[in-house]
Design goal:
Layout (H helix, E strand, L loop, with lengths): L5 H4 L10 H4 L12 H8 L9 H5 L6 H9 L3 H9 L5 H7 L3 H5 L11 H14 L15 E5 L3 H12 L3 E5 L8 H4 L8 H13 L3 E3 L10 H7 L2 E4 L5 E2 L12 E3 H12 L16 E5 L3 H12 L4 E5 L26 H4 L3 E3 L2 E9 L2 E15 L2 E6 L5 E4 L2 E4 L3 E3 L5 H5 L22 E3 L2 H4 L4 H19 L3
Parallel strand pairs: 1-2, 1-4, 2-3, 4-16, 6-14, 7-8, 7-14, 8-9
Antiparallel strand pairs: 5-15, 10-11, 11-12, 11-13
Helix pairs in contact: 3-5, 3-9, 5-6, 6-9, 7-9, 10-19, 14-15
Length: about 475
């Protein structure tokens, strides 16, 4: 490292967020940026730690010490070159990754890790601003045709590498624009859609073909794709939401989180609704069931829609503020996460199970909940109800942010007849190949719902295997 004692002289400094009283009235990105000088100083804190646990914890194997060193020296272009060598889309992960690298940073022993995630996005934005990022089409084409079905992070990563390898790649997306849940699931205040379009435009200039409103298995037969392409990569994600099959579920005003988030993202993009069936939180008592990132996104979106109140409940107990002895460094810290959305005005409640929905005139008006306790018995956690803790939470809009159970089976997967595993995900072998000849799969459709960075890593692995397959046929 250029400054092996930088971490002793420079304190961790985050870019911070836009003022709360300003940001809740728009959908622009919340996170601010540091000036270049401060950012380079933050990179100087990356110490010569010997074993880079940050690299060990990163799903895409980012060369973090290398590009931090280059950033500190002001060699922004070389830093970007090292960054893009392992990650197709650092502008995405730099904004929305939970940064397991920072949890594993040696300096996190003292709870002051290097600002790795912010450094990553700063390098990328500087590269675009300075014109370092240019389309580089492959010098030669192999003549082999590849269909990538699904344009989320896994599909985009696979398509990008396969196109760079010289294959003729078509990226299929069932919705009206490419990007998958990056576009329709993540709010603009976390990830501007202009950032997605900028990368997609670059990929198109490099020769990638994108077909939208192409729902394979619905408006395009699966066999047609199999007949026309030399290899297929399925990357449709795991979009089947987990439901709550309890009394009152049929009441109006209860929606899946992704329906709510996608609707607002389309409004933000200027796409008008054809029908009047909008999911709007304005003036309502909003209850978000589910304490994860999707639930947090619902909180921030509901606040921007001027909800009367927002409550978020979680069935698990409240996490600790600091690591417990059974969760040591360098593993990802299982600690309380307070997002910018939570800071904007939300009541958070833990250890609550939902008993039933209560309504009037066919519209939800409240939710009956009960407190639970968790016990660790024989190596497993078990839940038991706490007698006498029934209560009602008033709500006239309920958003179910309970995660996803498996890929949508109807359409592509049912028509293709691919073998599924016990969790109803697509079953693949060690080379990402499915039960059908020349059909591969990547991302959440294989692993179940996971992180964007894991999807990118899976897409990259699939691209490598597909390239090897195509060069041997």
């Amino acid at each position: 490292m250029a400054d092996v004692t930088g971490f002793l002289k420079i304190k961790r400094k985050e870019a911070g967020n836009r003022p709360l009283h300003e940001r809740i009235y728009d959908y622009s990105e919340v996170e601010q940026t540091l000036n270049s000088e401060d950012r380079m100083l933050q990179a100087s804190r990356c110490m010569d730690c010997g074993v880079p646990f940050c690299h060990w914890s990163c799903p895409v194997d980012n060369l973090i010490p290398e590009w931090n060193d280059l950033l500190y020296k002001g060699e922004w272009k070389r830093a970007y070159d090292r960054l893009i060598a392992t990650n197709n889309f650092p502008e995405f992960t730099g904004r929305i990754c939970p940064a397991s690298c920072e949890h594993a940073c040696v300096l996190n022993i003292n709870q002051e890790p290097v600002t790795i995630r912010e450094n990553e996005v700063a390098i990328t934005e500087k590269a675009f601003a300075e014109g370092y990022v240019k389309p580089v089409p492959p010098k030669a084409r192999t003549g082999k045709k590849v269909a990538v079905i699904g344009s989320g992070p896994a599909g985009m990563a696979a398509a990008d590498l396969l196109n760079k390898a010289g294959h003729l790649v078509t990226l299929f997306e069932k919705d009206e624009k490419a990007g998958g849940l990056l576009r329709f699931g993540i709010p603009d205040f976390k990830l501007s859609k202009a950032t997605i379009d900028r990368r997609l435009d670059l990929m198109i200039k490099e020769g990638l073909i994108i077909r939208t409103s192409a729902n394979i298995g619905k408006n395009i037969p699966v066999q047609e794709i199999i007949d026309q392409y030399d290899a297929i990569c399925i990357a449709i994600g795991a979009a089947q939401p987990r439901d709550l099959s309890i009394a009152g579920r049929e009441l109006y005003g209860i929606h899946f989180a992704m329906d709510f988030l996608a609707a607002q993202n389309r409004i933000t993009a200027g796409q008008m609704f054809i029908t009047g069936n909008q999911i709007i939180a304005e003036g309502k008592k909003v209850l978000v069931i589910g304490g994860g990132d999707t639930g947090s996104d619902c909180v921030g979106t509901a606040i921007r829609q001027k909800a009367g109140s927002v409550t978020q409940i979680e069935i698990l107990p409240k996490p600790p503020l600091i690591r417990t002895p059974d969760n040591p460094w360098p593993y990802c810290g299982k600690i309380l996460k307070t997002t910018t959305s939570h800071e904007e005005g939300c009541e958070r409640l833990w250890s609550l199970t939902t008993i039933k929905f209560v309504g009037f005139d066919n519209h939800v008006k409240g939710v009956e909940v009960e407190e639970v306790e968790w016990e660790y018995i024989d190596g497993k956690y078990s839940m038991r109800s706490v007698p006498g803790t029934f209560r009602m939470i008033d709500a006239d809009l309920v958003l179910l942010a309970l995660g996803f159970v498996h890929p949508v089976l109807d359409g592509l997967l049912s028509e293709s007849g691919l073998e599924l595993d016990s969790r109803k995900n697509v079953k693949v072998n060690s080379n990402q190949s499915t039960s059908r000849q020349k059909v591969f799969a990547a991302g959440d459709v294989v692993s179940g719902a996971s992180l964007v960075v894991n999807a990118i890593a899976s897409g990259r692995r699939a691209a490598k295997e597909i390239d090897r397959y195509l060069r041997n046929i």
